Amino acid sequence: MAGTDKTKASRAEGATPPFILVNPQLGQNIGTSARAMLNCGITEMRLVAPRDGWPNVEAVAAASGADRVLDGATLYGDTAKAIADLQAVYATTARERYMVKPVLTAREAAKEMRARVAEGQKVGVLFGPERAGLVNDDLALANALIRIPLNPGFSSLNLAQSVLLVGYEWFQAADETPGREDRYGWSPPAGKEMLQNFFTMLERELDECGFLRNIEKRPSMVRNIRNMFQRAQLSEQELRTLHGMVACLTDWRAGTDELGEPVRRRRKRKSEG
Predict the structure, then answer these.
(1) How far is CA 263 from the centre of its chain?
(2) Which candidate, 41, 45, 11, 16, places its Cα nearest to that of 123?
(3) Alpha-carbon distance 25 to 45, whole Å?
(4) Which of 79, 64, 94, 72 is nearest to 142 (CA)?
């Protein structure tokens, strides 16, 4: 899904957890993981003994512009060295490891990591190789495990997917984007006075054409019509368009000519004498 706007300030500023890829196998997966990290405002990548060596041209191609992450990636010989400066480590796993450790969802882990970072701690997240994930010796180095709840019959993720899901929860834990935002373009939302004028005109025309002829049902029919347009949350321009449409339709009425043939003729309004 496209949507990058390089004119906007990056929201990656401030302390973010390093994402540590342990024994990644393919350069493409490192590149797509870098892209996922930058999507979520995380820029520090650490690589532990990548199988195909480092740097890797295939990683650059797959990163789709996330060069900032790849250029700053640091290389380590083993996991212990990669986490030596951290005070808390979270390790991702999809399988039951039967270890006595807290097991958190990515969402809960993100909240906990942000709380630690706010206290001045440095935290990081371990991701295992694509084929089998982290080995138990690496998991033993972690303070807690992250498990992403998915279909229990098929919960395996590729490396970049795992990175994106954990990164997304990290980003969301501090994001203030409203859950819904109504866009009206250049035209503001229609005000209630403007709506009332439209309702008055529409109901007058509906009375005249006989649509609201049932006196007993008329009040509920009018309410239904008004509710329908209120739910639409129309802009001023949209309401002006509707007003013009109704006016145009009602300016012309079906009739017959001198020979009885059906014709449409312009209705003479009261204001026209």
Answers:
(1) 54
(2) 16
(3) 15
(4) 79
The backbone torsions φ and ψ at residue 21, rounded to the nearest 5 degrees and listed phi first, read -95, 115
Tell me the C-alpha to C-alpha distance, in Å, between residue 172 and each of 147, 157, 198. Answer: 17, 20, 42
Do residues 210 and 166 lie in contact, with contact meaning Cβ atoms separated by under 8 Å?
no
Distance of alpha carbon 238 from alpha carbon 102, whole angstroms = 55
DSSP 8-state class, residue 186: T
The two tokens of residue 109 are: 């882990």
> Model confidence over 215-234: pLDDT tens digits?
999 999 999 999 999 998 89
Is 127 a residue whose pLDDT tops 90? yes
- HEC string of 149-196 equals CCCCCCCCCCHHHHHHHHHHHHHHCCCCCCCCCCCCCCCCECCHHHHH
User: Whose CA is closest to 234, among 197, 182, 269?
Assistant: 182
Residue 143 burial (10 A CB sphere; 0-12, 13-18, 19+): middle
Distance CA 204, CA 211 (A): 10
Integer angstrom CA distances of residue 146 from 46, 60, 93, 136, 211 = 18, 28, 6, 14, 62
In contact, 76 and 49? CB cutoff 8 Å: yes
One-letter amino acid at 5 equals D
Return the closest-CA partner of residue 27 out of 2, 3, 51: 51
Q: Going from the N-terminus, what domains does the chain have, and what CATH number goes with each?
A: 19-172 (3.40.1280.10), 192-272 (1.10.8)
Q: Is the pLDDT of residue 75 over 90?
A: yes
Going by pLDDT thresholds of 50, 70 and 90, the confidence category of residue 17 is very high
Asked whether 129 and 23 are in contact (CB, 8 A), the reply is: yes
Residue that wins the pLDDT comparison between 153 and 45:
45
Residue located via tokens 């939302």: 189
Provide φ and ψ at 179, rounded to 5°.
-65, -25
